[in-house]
Amino acid sequence: MRRIIQTILLWTTRRFIWFVVIVAILATANWIRGELTAFRSLTNDHAALITGKEDIKRHFQETARESLNRVTQAAKASPEKLELRVGEIETEIQHKKAEQKKHGTISSLLSSSPLGSDYLEHLKLDVEIKILTQEKDYLTTLVAYLERAFNQAAAKRRLEDLRLAHVDAYAKLEKIAREVGRSDRNEFCQPSWKTRIPVIWTPYKELRAACTANAAAAANYKNQKEVVEVTRLIRPAAFALLPASTDEALSQIDRAITERVKRIDGSWVEKATGPVIQVLPTAALILLSLIFMPILIKAFFYFVIAPMAARRPPIKLLPRSGNLDGGSRTPPSDIGQTKVSSVSLSITVDEQSELLIHPDYLQSSSVEGTKETKWLLDWSYPMSSLASGMIALTRIRTDRRKTFVISSTRDPLSEVGVISVVEGSALVFQPHSLVGILQRKVRPVHISSAWRFNSLHAWLTLQFRYLIFHGPAQLIVKGCRGVRVEAPGTGRSINQAATLGFAANLNYATLRCETFGAYLMGRDALFNDYFTGTSGFYVYEEMPNPGRKYGIFGRGIEGVTDSLLKVFGI
C-alpha cells in the first residue's frame, strides 16, 4: 500500500512540477512578447515623433508663407475692409479651437501609445491658431494706424485754415494801423493799453478789435500746431511671424521624444540589441572586406606579380655539378616508371660504409654489427638538424655485408626510397623528408648551404637558404604515398608543396598555376616549382603531406613555423 501511495505521490509531484514549468514558460513567453511589443511601439512612436517634428516645421513654413501673402494683399485695402478681415480671422480662430477640442488635450495625445495621428493634427491647428492670432493683431494695429493717419490729415488741413485766418487778421490789423497813423500798433495791442488809455475814438476801437482778432487767430493756430506736432505717426513694421508659433509645439514634441528615449534606453531589449545594432554596419563592412579583399589580392598576385616573376631569371645553384643517379640508375624516359619508393626498403651495409637512420624507420636489423647514437645529422648545422628532426639517429656499422629493412613504423601513408648522389654531383634537399643516409665511413656526406636574397623567386617562395648534399652518398627519403624522380627536360612544373629536392645544376624558378579559378578557390597554390635543364632530376612526393601546410597563412602557429623553416631550407 505504501508503495502505491509513493508511486501516486511521485507521479503527482512530477506532473505538478511539469505544470509549474509550463506555466513559467508560458508566463515568461507572454512577458517577453509584451516587452517586445512595448519596445516596438516605443521605437515606432519615437520615429513618428521625429517625423512629426519635421512635418510641423514644414507646415509652419507653408502656413507662414500663406499668411504673409494674405497680409501683404490686405495692407493695400481700406480700413473698412481690414476690419472685415479681422472679423473673419476671429471666426476662423474660434472654428479651429473648436476642432482642437474634438481631438482632446495634447498631453493625453502625446502620452498615448501607440501614437496616433491626432496629436499631429492638434499641433498643426495650434500653429495655425497662433499664426492667425498674430495676423489679426497686426491687422488691428494697421487699422488703428490708418485711422490715426486719417485724423492727422484732417488736423493738418485745419492747421492750414487757421494759418490763413491768422494771415488775414494780421493783414487787417496792419491796414487799420496805417489808417489811424499808429506806428506803435504792437504796443497799442498790448493788454496794458486797455486800462491805461481809454479808447473813445472809433478808429481806435477798430484797431483795438483788429488786435483782439489777430491775437485770437494766432492762439488758435498755435494750439492746433501743437496738436499736429504731438500726434506723430509711426507706421507698423513689415509683418513677420514670431518663432513662438512653433516653439511651444516643438517643445511639446521634444518632451515626448525625450520621454520615449529614456524608456527605450531603460528597456532590456535596447540594452541587449543596441550594441549589436551599433556594430552591424562595421561588421558588414568587415565581412565585405573579408569576402572581396582576398579576391582582389589574389587577382593582383595572379595577374601582376606572377607574370612579373615568370620573366625573372631562374635560380641555378651549382651549374657545373654532375648528374644524379635516380635510385642507382638513370630513370627511363617513361614518367610513369620513375617511382623510386616503396612501403619498405632493404638497405645493404658493408664494412666500408655506415648507415645513419631515424629510429622510427628501422623496421628490422641484423643483430651483428655495432649500433650507437649520433645526436645530430651534421654538427656544422645543429639548428637545421634539430628543426628537421634528424637528431638521435642510429648509426649502424658492420664487419661484413648485412641487410636492414627500412620502413615507417608510425605513418601508414609514408613510403621510403633511395636517392643516389654520385661522386661530383649534388642534390638540393629539404632535410625534413630525410630519414637516413648511407655513406662511406672515411668520407661522410658533405652538406653545404647557399643563400639567395637577390632573386624574386626566393622572395615569392620564402626560401632563401638551400641545403646541398654532395656525393658520394645515398639519401634515404620519405614521401607521402611515394617518392618520384623525374627529368625536367624542356621544362616541367610541380606542386610546390610536393617538392622534396632537385639537382643543384637545374634551373629552378616559380611558375604561375594553370587556372585562376583553382587558385581563387584555394585548390591550387599561386606558384608551382618550375625546373628546366638537360641533365639532372628533381624529387617530389606523390601527394603533399596533409599534416604540413606551407605558407605563413597555414595552420596558425604551425603555419608560421613551417614558413620559417622553409626560409632556411629545412
How would you characterize this protein structure?
The chain is built from 13 helices and 19 strands. Helix 1 runs parallel beside helix 4 (118-180), helix 2 packs antiparallel against helix 4 (118-180) and helix 4 (118-180) packs antiparallel against helix 7. The strands form 4 sheets. It has a 7-stranded antiparallel β-sheet. A 6-stranded antiparallel β-sheet has the order 11-12-9-16-19-14, with no helix packed on it. A 3-stranded antiparallel β-sheet has the order 2-7-4, with no helix packed on it. 52% of the residues lie in helices and 19% in strands. By secondary structure, it is of the alpha+beta class. The longest helix has 73 residues, at 2-74.
Overall mean pLDDT: 79
Distance from N terminus to C terminus (CA atoms, Å) equals: 81 Å
Number of helices: 13
Give the tally of β-strands.
Answer: 19
* Main sheet record: 7 strands, antiparallel
- Low-pLDDT residue intervals, each spanning 5 or more residues: 193-197, 326-336, 549-559
As an assembly, this protein is: single chain
Content of β-strand: 15-25%
The helix/strand class is alpha+beta
The backbone outline, from C-alpha atoms, is elongated
Relative helix content: 40-55%
- Biggest sheet, spatial arrangement of strands: 1-8-13-10-3-6-5
**Radius of gyration, rounded?**
58 Å
Question: How would you sum up this structure in a few lines?
Answer:
This protein is α+β, with helices and mostly antiparallel strands and 570 residues long. 52% of the residues lie in helices and 19% in strands. The protein has helices at residues 2-74, 79-103, 106-111, 118-180, 185-188, 193-196, 202-230, 244-266, 268-310, 382-388, 456-461, 516-520, 557-567, and strands spanning 341-342, 344-349, 353-357, 362-364, 370-376, 391-397, 402-407, 414-421, 426-429, 434-440, 446-451, 465-470, 473-480, 483-486, 489-495, 499-503, 507-512, 527-533, 538-541.
